[in-house]
Amino acid sequence: MTLPLTLGDTFKQAKYRTTGNGPRDVNVLLQSLQHVDGDTPSEMYGRGEIIEKFERKLAEMLGKESAVFFPSGTMAQQIALRIWSDRKDSKAVAYHPLCHLEIHEQDGLKELHHLEPVLLGTQDRLITLDDVKKMPANVACLLLELPQREIGGELPEYTELEQISAYCREQGIALHLDGARLFEILPYYGKQASEVCGLFDSVYVSFYKGIGGIAGAMLLGDADLAEQSKVWKRRHGGDLISLYPYILSSEYYMDLRLPKMERYYEQAKQLAALYNTCSGMRTRPEIPVSNMFHLHLNIPMSVAESVIAEVQEESGIALAAYLKETSETTCATEIAIGDCYEDVPQEQLKAAIKLLNERLNS
Amino acid sequence: MTLPLTLGDTFKQAKYRTTGNGPRDVNVLLQSLQHVDGDTPSEMYGRGEIIEKFERKLAEMLGKESAVFFPSGTMAQQIALRIWSDRKDSKAVAYHPLCHLEIHEQDGLKELHHLEPVLLGTQDRLITLDDVKKMPANVACLLLELPQREIGGELPEYTELEQISAYCREQGIALHLDGARLFEILPYYGKQASEVCGLFDSVYVSFYKGIGGIAGAMLLGDADLAEQSKVWKRRHGGDLISLYPYILSSEYYMDLRLPKMERYYEQAKQLAALYNTCSGMRTRPEIPVSNMFHLHLNIPMSVAESVIAEVQEESGIALAAYLKETSETTCATEIAIGDCYEDVPQEQLKAAIKLLNERLNS
Questions:
Q1: CATH assignment of B43-241?
Q2: Which of B290, B197, B237 is nearest to A69 (CA)?
Q3: Cα angle for residues B259, B210, A247 (degrees, 5° grid)
Q4: Chain A environment of B25 (Cβ under 8 Å)
Q5: pLDDT under 70: residue ranges of chain B
Q6: Separation CA A225–CA A207 (nearest Å)
Q7: Closest residue of chain B to A104, computed from CA coordinates
Q8: Is B71 close to A238, i.e. CB distance below 8 A?
Q9: Which residues of B touch A33 (CB under 8 A)?
Q10: Range A327-352 average pLDDT
Q11: pLDDT band at A4 (very low <50, low <70, confident <90, very high)
């Protein structure tokens, strides 16, 4: 007896992928090194051309005084909040209940830095200006994540963002941007990165989300914040003698994919529209505002898994690599458009989604 | 007017190097990837064949139940001490006054983990059994660094190490090995790695010292310690989605250089003996016990710098990349034998050291 192929297997084996930039394998590194001169010296503990040049490039692009490369966003953001907390002499920081620091970091912020997060708004919606105005007076720093990943990548209207920024400045509250997917939202806002970052006092960006690098992050802000963050980077164990494998690949994929963010955004809207023609399926946001959205299915996860696996195998189109149970009768997956989407033949894609709709509703 | 070349310049430009494994440049990464299949999938957040296979290999080699790969030793060791502190419910940990955690980590252990180090012994000598016996009773964990890098890489006699280990077990004090240079000391002790590690409850090893990888470390101990260390790794921001650039290069250079540690040790003794024939120079240890030693010069640093630069330029033999001032009239440098030494023509080396001796004592 042959076991039926899993969702993950059929995703990997399908000829075309609707989501992502392709497999996360060693080729990602090899490709990024193809045109690098092997004699290029490593940076040493954060110093040297290879890291400083990239930091200057990002500082300029994002309109901030200084930038510091970090191995991870987890490290960079805890440190940013710690610095703001120390500056304002208050342990209170505010963020969304589904903030990365709250749900994905084993409480590093609390366990290592003893900060005390105030959760703003509720799990199912964005933080609003009204939430911000009701914050306790002792909040040192407010972290906003744009787009709010755990709710499908929703975004506030730009005017509301401006109002939140103005309010925080008025109140002396530092405003930090979790910009893991900053470049992905610029086409929707119709803004330059530096314009969005201008609303914030410190900014973190990631190089392995839409940009599709291997790992790595940048923290940006004033020169003092940058210097202090290097001390904390050393304390966290992130000031490696050599970070160049991440730096080189980050820069390579940034140059390659920043010009494609507009296209990913348009393709996300196109794909979401296809899913929204189906019964029992809906996307969040209904009309994407970046390259990402969540696909919600009114179907128990075990049923959806086997049906999507079948459709992937039969159609040769990979739709979902995994599902997450959201209740006994519903499930969801995350779609993030990258390089793979443009290779997908549109007629085959439409046929695959039609087949999915039929099988799930038969 | 042409400025005279600096010590660093002449070191880099010399045809032969007495110390190290060669330049830290991108070729180090490229060489390690030459025979890697590009389709090899990345591990994901600490899971997957690429990381687990290497962890199992080290656990077996060092005779420990479990191993966890870390981006840095700074992160791995703070976490090891934190886990022992929590287990024993005491914030006191003991180590040498020149321990890496005390002088090179911006006090991460104190600032992030609030541990309270007890400094054992004095800066100019090794920790002894006697020091250990006089430790406060509340010490949760004793860290020993083998070899003690900041004093030239000295080592206790193996019998004393066994006595310290037995005493700690008797007293219920955890014994942790800072084994950044563990593989480098095995030829002197005439022991297998697992024998030395058997004296310790937890062990850290580095992949970019004698092994000459890019960065990376392994923490080893019981299975519970390993599991807890993964939680702390996430909190520190070290649980990257992909650490494979470090893992692949660590494994490559480990396989390449572990068999050469005996040779490096013999060559270190040979080179130290040459320096010890000179006037105003001495090595510490006088007879090396690993691939490393410190060279101490009874000469003001500025004088030594220009003389060594001259000798390096004239002889084509790189002796020292940098000097450190140890007083107004003395300075020192660290020598660590690696792959480069065996290419150095012995007669040219002897002539260079003779020239150095003449110039420094003229």
A1: 3.40.640.10
A2: B237
A3: 120
A4: 38-42
A5: 1-2
A6: 21
A7: B234
A8: yes
A9: 26, 29-30, 33
A10: 98
A11: confident
Report the C-alpha gap between B214 and B57 in whole angstroms.
19
Residue with tokens 């890019």: B214
Distance CA A294, CA A182 (A): 18
DSSP string of B23-51, one letter each residue? --BHHHHHHHHTTS-TTPBPPBTTBSHHH
Per-residue confidence (pLDDT) for residue A1, from 0 to 100: 59
Q: In the predicted model, what is the mean pLDDT of chain A?
A: 97
Interface residue B26 vs chain A (CB under 8 A): yes
Instruction: Name the B residues in 63-102 with CB < 8 Å from any A CB.
Output: 70-76, 78
Interface test with B, best of A24, A26, A252 (most B CBs within 10 A): A26
Which homologous superfamily is A7-24+260-360 in? Aspartate Aminotransferase, domain 1 (3.90.1150.10)
Helices (H) and strands (E) in chain A, counts: 15, 13
Does residue A5 carry a pLDDT above 90? no
Say how far apart CA B100 and CA B149 lie, in whole Å.
Answer: 9
A239/B111 Cβ within 8 A = no
Which CATH number is associated with domain B7-23+260-360?
3.90.1150.10
| Any B CB within 8 A of A130 CB | no
pLDDT in tens, A31-81: 999 999 999 999 999 999 999 999 999 999 999 999 999 999 999 999 999
Interval A218-247: pLDDT, tens: 999 999 999 999 999 999 999 999 999 999
Judged by CB atoms closer than 8 Å, whether chains meet at B246 and A245 is answered as: yes
A319 touches chain B (CB under 8 A): no
Confidence at A345, pLDDT banded by 50, 70, 90: very high
Q: What does the block give as tokens for B123?
A: 């800066």
Q: Which residue does chain B place closest to A112, by CA atoms?
A: B112
User: ipTM of the assembly?
Assistant: 0.97
Contacts of B242 in chain A (CB under 8 A): 24, 208, 214-215
| Strand pairing report for A16-17 and A317-318 | parallel
Inter-chain touch B234–A106, beta carbons under 8 Å: yes
Domain boundaries, chain B: 7-23+260-360, 43-241
b vs e for B113-126, b when ≥16 Cβ sit within 10 Å of the residue's Cβ?
A: bebbbeebbeeeeb
pTM of the model: 0.97
The confidence score (pLDDT) of residue B3 equals 73
Distance (Å, whole) CA B204 – CA B220: 6
Q: How far is B223 from chain A (nearest CA, A)?
A: 19
Partner A contacted by B13 (CB < 8 A): no
Q: Which residue bears the tokens 């007879």?
A: B287
